[in-house]
């Protein structure tokens, strides 16, 4: 073990050393004046960021300094300035993700403290949100349980995946392997447009057309069911599955398919025994990303569900739809304050972490597939 | 590939026979049943009424039975050697599971509900019946295995409808705490739908003469049907919104010189020759016709702001990642972060904007917060698409430029960026289409009241002021809550009945808002897709 840590330490030190050397080389090769401009830019932008975080009215000063120094740099040393600006823009994507993490976690801390539960004499913060199913923001005991919403999200996601996965993979097969060029030119933009239809429009149609119809068909009291929210959300996740799976299928080398066809197999045999197995990890990444979309879908669920945070009775009763993690935020942000608002942030944290894990998992799977197929990573 | 399969089909296939024709008719019958089931599901065809002089349920039952008999007859004929086919020894596990699933459901529900034996017995019976169906599919030769269990399923469903065991008044009370029932109104079309799919699959296999070609046929029927349904779904969805929305959109439309509102074009004040109150008015007590102008203008500024923020940032990041950075930890982290941002739920962006931006811009919802939140959402899309576009610029271009002795930045500016421009532009337009329809992020950061009077239409350009105290620049228009089309629609839905006092016909008003929103978003998509085709065609020509 000690050796492993040693070697890792060594590697990190080596990497840092390499970085320092590179920075030094850059500093040596660059003119002093250009370096000065770059430093002014970096410091002033950092100052602007700090000022913005500290809610200062003076933020504008360092920002103007940054703009001014960039303008001077652009005229005098365009090469170095362009490099620096591009680097700063790249760092901004990481910065935004970091800020999201910090801010939504920070807001959720008070309610996690409030919802502590004692297990074997140890007080575990936040545990009570997951061991009892009661959400009541009005009358004491005030409880903010996440259980009903997690149940709702799981139900909707399961149904949505059951819709989106088979239909999406089949459509991807159609687009990448089966469709003649002219048909493809029609269906592919169609799938893209399907991705563009705003979720609130889906929700509106679900609310005005599907909701009353479903309530009548299944003789339920009032409208709003996980079943139909799941189907609608599944249709919304469909384009994601199709486009990612199609990319995976078309990244299977043509030589593999031709080799199989040359053996006298039918197209379908080639697809099931060569293309699909070779692209399997990419296709499962597509399904994963579709699941991620389904979990995060907000407006359709908000409009179509009942908005009463409780478990359905019995748990498998998909004909009733109460609330999901996304819809509770969209529905309650208006009148919520204090602990209730923080509880909404907890729902946001659960969503964010789940979807981030799914996204990273899907990327890992795709990366492995590319490596195995010998393509460029 | 499609061309190749046609050729070898001709090589292998023997001459068309009557049996082929029978199988073809069976596939056609399945298609008719499928269409009937869909129309009945959405109550375009009444179950209690009649079609072609026959009761709907009876007709469905009769067609299902006929299809089932045809499927079984085909399998039996092939097994006994009357029909020339090319079956494999077994239909395979996938077909086995496919056949087992409906039989498990039938066995389970008949045992537990019809015979009243309870849930435990129901599960056992379901599994047993499913196992029999599975064995009957997998064990015999393929021609029997892929027709008998499915044909029997069709005949059973058909007979249940024909004999009236399930008639239009039938309902199965689920006896749950939250009351729900499965009614014939739903069960009959749904069962017909799935039975038609199974029938079509089995008869397409038979049409292909079983074996590898038969399976190819069966699978292709389903895959084509799926693709067709997706396109049809899209068309119906758009057409439905258009049909519902047009009356509301066109209320009070007036065409003629001087009817429209005054507007200034190139310094000259002109009265537009068309008046469409719905898109030219706000909501006010004295208006003849109410409209959503503030929301349209809000959406417009929102998109402009998001693009101004996200496009430079995203393109810059893409330049750095593709041109400057060597592949390593840093680029990997950025990639993971961008993809993570791309899949982050929109409502989480809303929460983030609520916690991070609102306290920094005057502690209230504002247009500026909405712009920045949506810009953050657009950023990963811009990074991803611009990167793809830059990666697809051939390295020869860069090498040729470098060989001329110009610096890296000059190469990027005058070679890489122009070559990647079409991809970047297309990606940005499609991304804008996506964020223009987003409701969740602006819900928490920007959106104000349900109805805005026309006087509250934001005027960003005219709103800039310079002040003596820091931050020296102020723009009240940017710091006020306003509306946007997707939020307007959401507010209209949640406002429910209270809408009546403000708007004459609330339903028409809602649908018209949905139509305008859809038109705005889809026009971005149309422009994006058209741009792509334009550039692709130009690339092919040169």
Automatic annotation (TrEMBL), chain A:
<comment type="similarity">
    <text>Belongs to the binding-protein-dependent transport system permease family. CysTW subfamily.</text>
</comment>
<dbReference type="InterPro" id="IPR035906">
    <property type="entry name" value="MetI-like_sf"/>
</dbReference>
<feature type="transmembrane region" description="Helical">
    <location>
        <begin position="84"/>
        <end position="105"/>
    </location>
</feature>
<feature type="transmembrane region" description="Helical">
    <location>
        <begin position="152"/>
        <end position="173"/>
    </location>
</feature>
<dbReference type="GO" id="GO:0006817">
    <property type="term" value="P:phosphate ion transport"/>
</dbReference>
<dbReference type="InterPro" id="IPR051124">
    <property type="entry name" value="Phosphate_Transport_Permease"/>
</dbReference>
<comment type="function">
    <text>Part of the binding-protein-dependent transport system for phosphate; probably responsible for the translocation of the substrate across the membrane.</text>
</comment>
<dbReference type="InterPro" id="IPR011864">
    <property type="entry name" value="Phosphate_PstC"/>
</dbReference>
<feature type="transmembrane region" description="Helical">
    <location>
        <begin position="193"/>
        <end position="214"/>
    </location>
</feature>
<protein>
    <recommendedName>
        <fullName>Phosphate transport system permease protein</fullName>
    </recommendedName>
</protein>
<feature type="transmembrane region" description="Helical">
    <location>
        <begin position="343"/>
        <end position="365"/>
    </location>
</feature>
<keyword id="KW-0813">Transport</keyword>
<dbReference type="InterPro" id="IPR000515">
    <property type="entry name" value="MetI-like"/>
</dbReference>
<keyword id="KW-1003">Cell membrane</keyword>
<feature type="transmembrane region" description="Helical">
    <location>
        <begin position="32"/>
        <end position="54"/>
    </location>
</feature>
<dbReference type="Pfam" id="PF00528">
    <property type="entry name" value="BPD_transp_1"/>
</dbReference>
<dbReference type="GO" id="GO:0005886">
    <property type="term" value="C:plasma membrane"/>
</dbReference>
<feature type="transmembrane region" description="Helical">
    <location>
        <begin position="226"/>
        <end position="245"/>
    </location>
</feature>
<dbReference type="GO" id="GO:0005315">
    <property type="term" value="F:phosphate transmembrane transporter activity"/>
</dbReference>
<keyword id="KW-1133">Transmembrane helix</keyword>
<keyword id="KW-0472">Membrane</keyword>
<feature type="domain" description="ABC transmembrane type-1">
    <location>
        <begin position="150"/>
        <end position="362"/>
    </location>
</feature>
TrEMBL record, chain B:
<keyword id="KW-0472">Membrane</keyword>
<keyword id="KW-0813">Transport</keyword>
<dbReference type="GO" id="GO:0005886">
    <property type="term" value="C:plasma membrane"/>
</dbReference>
<dbReference type="Pfam" id="PF00528">
    <property type="entry name" value="BPD_transp_1"/>
</dbReference>
<feature type="transmembrane region" description="Helical">
    <location>
        <begin position="511"/>
        <end position="535"/>
    </location>
</feature>
<feature type="transmembrane region" description="Helical">
    <location>
        <begin position="263"/>
        <end position="286"/>
    </location>
</feature>
<feature type="transmembrane region" description="Helical">
    <location>
        <begin position="186"/>
        <end position="207"/>
    </location>
</feature>
<feature type="transmembrane region" description="Helical">
    <location>
        <begin position="366"/>
        <end position="384"/>
    </location>
</feature>
<feature type="transmembrane region" description="Helical">
    <location>
        <begin position="90"/>
        <end position="111"/>
    </location>
</feature>
<dbReference type="GO" id="GO:0005315">
    <property type="term" value="F:phosphate transmembrane transporter activity"/>
</dbReference>
<protein>
    <recommendedName>
        <fullName>Phosphate transport system permease protein PstA</fullName>
    </recommendedName>
</protein>
<feature type="transmembrane region" description="Helical">
    <location>
        <begin position="146"/>
        <end position="166"/>
    </location>
</feature>
<dbReference type="InterPro" id="IPR000515">
    <property type="entry name" value="MetI-like"/>
</dbReference>
<feature type="domain" description="ABC transmembrane type-1">
    <location>
        <begin position="296"/>
        <end position="491"/>
    </location>
</feature>
<dbReference type="GO" id="GO:0035435">
    <property type="term" value="P:phosphate ion transmembrane transport"/>
</dbReference>
<feature type="transmembrane region" description="Helical">
    <location>
        <begin position="117"/>
        <end position="139"/>
    </location>
</feature>
<feature type="transmembrane region" description="Helical">
    <location>
        <begin position="219"/>
        <end position="243"/>
    </location>
</feature>
<dbReference type="InterPro" id="IPR005672">
    <property type="entry name" value="Phosphate_PstA"/>
</dbReference>
<feature type="transmembrane region" description="Helical">
    <location>
        <begin position="21"/>
        <end position="42"/>
    </location>
</feature>
<comment type="similarity">
    <text>Belongs to the binding-protein-dependent transport system permease family. CysTW subfamily.</text>
</comment>
<feature type="transmembrane region" description="Helical">
    <location>
        <begin position="298"/>
        <end position="321"/>
    </location>
</feature>
<feature type="transmembrane region" description="Helical">
    <location>
        <begin position="54"/>
        <end position="78"/>
    </location>
</feature>
């Amino acid at each position: 073990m000690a050796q492993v840590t040693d070697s890792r330490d060594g590697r990190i030190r080596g990497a840092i050393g390499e970085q320092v050397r590179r920075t030094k080389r850059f500093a040596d090769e660059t003119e002093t004046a250009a370096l000065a401009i770059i430093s002014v830019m970096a410091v002033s932008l950092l100052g602007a960021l700090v000022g913005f975080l500290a809610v200062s009215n003076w933020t504008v000063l360092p920002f103007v300094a940054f703009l001014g120094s960039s303008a001077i740099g652009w005229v005098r040393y365009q090469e170095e300035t362009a490099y620096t600006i591009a680097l700063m823009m790249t760092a901004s994507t990481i910065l935004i993700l970091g800020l999201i993490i910090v801010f939504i976690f920070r807001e959720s801390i008070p309610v996690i403290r409030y919802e502590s539960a004692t297990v074997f004499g140890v007080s575990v913060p936040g545990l009570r949100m997951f061991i009892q199913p009661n959400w009541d923001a009005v009358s004491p005991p005030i409880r903010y349980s996440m259980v009903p919403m997690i149940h709702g999200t799981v139900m909707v996601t399961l149904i949505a995946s059951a819709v989106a996965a088979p239909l999406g993979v089949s459509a991807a097969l159609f687009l990448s392997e089966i469709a003649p060029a002219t048909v493809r030119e029609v269906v592919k933009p169609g799938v893209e447009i399907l991705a563009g239809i705003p979720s609130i429009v889906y929700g509106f149609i679900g609310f005005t057309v599907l909701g009353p119809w479903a309530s009548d068909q299944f003789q339920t009291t009032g409208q709003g069911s996980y079943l139909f929210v799941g189907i609608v959300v599944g249709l919304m996740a469909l384009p994601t599955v199709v486009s990612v799976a199609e990319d995976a299928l078309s990244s299977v080398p043509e030589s593999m398919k031709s080799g199989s066809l040359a053996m006298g197999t039918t197209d379908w045999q080639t697809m099931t025994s060569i293309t699909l197995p070779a692209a399997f990890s990419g296709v499962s990444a597509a399904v994963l990303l579709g699941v991620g979309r389904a979990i995060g879908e907000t407006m359709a669920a908000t409009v179509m569900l009942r908005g009463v945070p409780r478990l359905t009775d019995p748990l498998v009763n998909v004909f009733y739809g109460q609330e999901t993690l996304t819809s509770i935020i969209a529905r309650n942000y208006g009148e919520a304050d204090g602990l209730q608002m923080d509880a909404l942030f907890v729902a946001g944290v659960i969503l964010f972490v789940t979807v981030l894990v799914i996204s990273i998992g899907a990327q890992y799977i795709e990366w492995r597939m590319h490596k195995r197929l010998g393509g460029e990573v | 590939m499609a061309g190749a399969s046609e050729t070898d089909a001709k090589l292998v296939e023997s001459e068309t026979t009557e049996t082929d024709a029978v199988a073809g008719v069976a596939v056609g019958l399945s298609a008719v049943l499928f269409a009937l089931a869909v129309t009945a599901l959405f109550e375009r065809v009444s179950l209690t009424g009649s079609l072609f002089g026959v009761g709907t349920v009876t007709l469905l039952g009769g067609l299902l039975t006929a299809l089932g008999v045809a499927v079984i007859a085909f399998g039996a004929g092939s097994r006994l050697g009357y029909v020339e086919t090319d079956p494999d020894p077994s239909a395979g596990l996938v077909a086995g599971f496919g056949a087992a699933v409906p039989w498990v459901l039938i066995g389970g529900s008949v045992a537990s509900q019809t015979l009243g034996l309870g849930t435990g017995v129901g599960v056992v019976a379901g599994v047993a019946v499913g196992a029999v169906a599975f064995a009957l599919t997998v064990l015999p030769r393929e021609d029997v295995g892929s027709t008998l269990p499915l044909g029997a399923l069709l005949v059973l469903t058909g007979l249940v409808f024909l004999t009236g065991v399930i008639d239009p008044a039938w309902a199965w009370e689920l006896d749950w705490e939250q009351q729900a029932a499965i009614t014939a109104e739903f069960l009959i079309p749904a069962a017909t739908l799935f039975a038609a799919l199974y029938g079509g699959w089995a008869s397409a296999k038979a049409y292909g003469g079983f074996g590898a070609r038969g399976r190819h046929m069966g699978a292709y029927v389903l895959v084509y049907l799926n693709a067709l349904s997706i396109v049809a779904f899209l068309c119906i969805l758009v057409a439905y919104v258009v049909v519902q929305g047009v009356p509301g959109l066109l209320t009070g439309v007036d065409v003629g010189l001087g009817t429209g509102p005054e507007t200034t074009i190139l310094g000259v004040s002109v009265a537009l020759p068309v008046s469409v109150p719905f898109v030219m008015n706000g909501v006010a007590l004295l208006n003849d016709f109410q409209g959503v102008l503030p929301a349209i203008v809000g959406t417009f500024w929102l998109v402009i702001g998001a693009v101004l923020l996200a496009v430079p940032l995203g393109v810059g990041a893409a330049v750095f990642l593709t041109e400057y950075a060597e592949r390593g930890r840093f680029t990997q982290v950025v990639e993971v972060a961008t993809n993570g941002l791309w899949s982050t739920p929109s409502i989480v962006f809303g929460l983030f904007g609520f916690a991070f931006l609102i306290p920094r811009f005057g502690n209230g919802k504002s247009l500026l917060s909405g712009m920045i939140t949506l810009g953050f959402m657009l950023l990963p899309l811009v990074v991803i698409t611009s990167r793809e576009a830059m990666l697809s610029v051939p390295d020869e271009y860069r090498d040729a430029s470098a060989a001329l002795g110009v610096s890296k930045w000059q190469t990027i500016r005058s070679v890489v960026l122009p070559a990647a421009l079409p991809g970047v532009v297309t990606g940005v337009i499609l991304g804008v289409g996506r964020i223009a329809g987003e409701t969740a992020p602006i819900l928490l950061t920007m959106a104000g009241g349900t109805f805005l009077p026309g006087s509250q239409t934001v005027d960003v350009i005219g709103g800039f002021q310079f002040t003596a105290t820091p931050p020296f620049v102020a723009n009240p228009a940017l710091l006020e809550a306003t509306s946007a089309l997707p939020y307007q629609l959401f507010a209209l839905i949640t406002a429910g009945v209270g809408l009546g006092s403000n708007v004459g016909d609330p339903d028409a008003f809602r649908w018209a808002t949905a139509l305008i929103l859809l038109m705005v978003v889809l026009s971005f998509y149309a422009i994006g897709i058209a741009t792509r085709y334009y550039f692709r065609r130009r690339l092919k020509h040169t």
